[in-house]
Amino acid sequence: MMALRGRGLVAVVVVLVLAWCAFEGVQGSQPSPLPLPRPPSKATQTGVFFPYICSKEITLSKIKVTQSERMYIQYVEYVAAIPHLTSFTLHYWFNLADTTNTSTMLNYEYEPSFPKNLLTVQLANEKGKQGQQQYWVMRLNGVLVSREAMHPPIRRGEWRHALHSWDAHTGVITHYIDGHLYKARTVYESKEWLIPAGGVAVSGQHHSAVTQGAGMDQGEGLNGWLTLLQLSSKPIGASPEDAALAKLAAQCPRKLRGT
Is the pLDDT of residue 66 over 80? Predict the structure, then answer.
């Protein structure tokens, strides 16, 4: 059975329901929890699986994370045996209550006390020449490998599905939004890289705030909902076959839907 623990000055209560991809909420005790939004029609509290890589998946969570970042940090830490990664696919559903922050979807570090962004995926909110702009940001082994402007931007209160993938054999990085290929690029520098095993993965916050921020949010805390997060050791590229697989990941078979 997968264990999960939360840390931070604001307690995070995690309830793990032993059902086939059934979920319950995780929310902080202070401040008042966010109201639970209506789930998306194609992703209620159920599972989404890749048809040919299920055996390779590292299920980090079978929970729903509800966070209300207000000054003090909230996050969840996954207890999972993550192997060496020469490729990965990360996918999840999310709903933001606040889009002014940078939302940390996943931050994986080998040594949490000295964050080096071994695997970090964020929806960053940055100020540019045309005002605030959202970017999908991916960092691997401490290197910024992808920074893609999000047009149109993610809005508050809407359920969206995101899928991010990297392949060390080709250097290809892909971002899929709601089952559609959004961006694909080849980062030759990342070819033959290895993300080390045995680290610690968190969602909802960056390790730097956890270990160096004295318990205060550094502007990278997720304020909203995150669910159905899964990490796979198999990549999804930009080919038509891979695109069809990513589209499938953004759907939820009727027989698996919850109530």
Answer: no
* Helix extents (H) in 98-236: 207-212
Q: Quick check: pTM over 0.70?
A: yes
- Residue at 87: amino acid letter: S
| Residue 259 domain flag | no
- Can you tell me the distance from the alpha carbon of 49 to that of 220, in angstroms, rounded to the nearest whole number? 28
3-state DSSP assignment of residue 180: strand
CATH number at residue 33: 2.60.120.200
Residue 88: give the domain boundaries. Answer: 3-254
Q: How many domains does the chain have?
A: 1
Task: Let me know if residue 146 belongs to a domain.
Answer: yes
- pLDDT bucket at 210, cuts 50 / 70 / 90: low
Domain membership flag for residue 225: yes
Amino acid making up residue 217:
D
Query: Could you read off the pLDDT of 80-127 as tens digits, one per residue?
Result: 788 999 999 999 999 999 888 899 999 998 876 666 889 999 999 887
For residue 96, being part of any structural domain is answered with yes
Strands 172-177 and 75-79: unpaired
Express each pLDDT in 2-21 by its tens digit. 333 443 322 222 222 222 23
b or e along 18-57 (b: 16 or more beta carbons within 10 Å of the residue's beta carbon)?
eeebbbebbbbeeeeebeeeebbebbbbbbbbbeeeeeee
